[in-house]
Design a protein that fits this description.
Order of helices and strands: HHHEHEHEEHEEHHEEEEEEEE
Largest sheet: 8 strands, antiparallel
Radius of gyration: 25 Å
Shape: globular
Low-confidence stretches: 1-36
Number of strands: 14
Structural class: alpha+beta
Number of helices: 8
Number of domains: 2
Length: about 290
């Protein structure tokens, strides 16, 4: 009988020890949480206020009215908002973002990854009375400006040949501006931007620059905030549109959670961003 009781006691101790054993990786996770507190401010509704600077870094200053300041202060939807496709459905992957930008997604499905950034750049120029600067190359290399479109000129496209003819009445309205953008979405993309825009080295990067892979399919993301430390080392926040056309979103850094959502950006680096990996980085800048 005593032997039986002893056996039961040993079994009970073993079960208890098993239940109280450290879960693999749990200690490391707890330490990580303590050492790297979240940089996300869930109650904030702009890019700058949503994400705090990592310890030892401060935001790079840009003048009011600049494209850099415009992007940094872009409005966000409430924290936890989902990425929505152009048809109203939820995107299948909801774990790679920490914010949704207040950029409407047209139901026509045209506003894909490059198009979303073209829209944001164009709206900035529109809002700052720089409308004559709005224009982009088609993939064919032909330049299409808002100015000529507003004056009634429309492209006649035959393969790789493009000619512009005045076939519409002059119309400088905001409604017509978005029709112009739909035309750009149809005939421009990552390949045209890759070929059209000025290349930038990582050491010279600033807010508004883009990381791009030109092609079909290609991909592109935009730098939307910037911090620097005492050694001159910089970190950046990134946002992206996607294919299918969907909510423009501020991405997490899934590779380095200690600084997420900030990124270290280097030339010729492999840079994963949520649902895409850039095998070799090329940075470009709008004119």
């Amino acid at each position: 009988m005593k032997k039986m009781v002893l056996v039961l006691v040993i079994i009970a101790i073993a079960v208890l020890a098993f239940q109280l054993r450290p879960v693999e990786g749990a200690v490391d996770k707890v330490v990580a949480i303590v050492e790297t507190p979240s940089l996300i401010n869930k109650d904030s509704l702009t890019i700058e206020s949503r994400v705090s600077e990592p310890k030892g870094y401060k935001r790079v200053s840009y003048p009011k009215g600049s494209f850099e300041n415009y992007l940094r202060n872009y409005d966000l939807k409430p924290f936890g908002s989902k990425i929505i496709n152009y048809d109203g459905s939820k995107y299948f992957w909801q774990r790679g973002h920490i914010g949704i930008l207040e950029v409407p997604v047209p139901k026509n499905g045209l506003q894909q990854c490059a198009d979303a950034l073209i829209r944001i750049r164009s709206e900035y120029l529109w809002d700052n009375d720089r409308k004559d600067e709005i224009g982009f190359n088609f993939t064919s290399g032909h330049y299409c400006s808002w100015k000529s479109y507003a004056e009634g000129y429309r492209p006649k496209i035959n393969g790789s040949k493009v000619n512009f003819h005045k076939t519409a009445s002059e119309n400088h309205s905001k409604e017509n501006f978005y029709k112009f953008l739909n035309l750009i979405y149809m005939y421009s993309g990552t390949l045209s931007l890759f070929n059209e825009l000025e290349s930038v080295k990582a050491k010279d990067l600033k807010i508004g620059d883009m990381l791009i892979k030109g092609g079909s399919p290609g991909h592109i993301v935009m730098l939307c905030d910037e911090v620097v430390n005492a050694n001159g080392e910089k970190l950046f926040l990134l946002f992206q549109g996607n294919t299918p056309a969907q909510s423009v979103h501020l991405v997490k850094n899934l590779e380095d959670t200690s600084i997420s959502p900030w990124y270290v950006l280097e030339d010729d680096a492999t840079i994963p961003v949520s649902n895409y990996t850039f095998g070799s980085a090329k940075f470009v800048r709008f004119k």
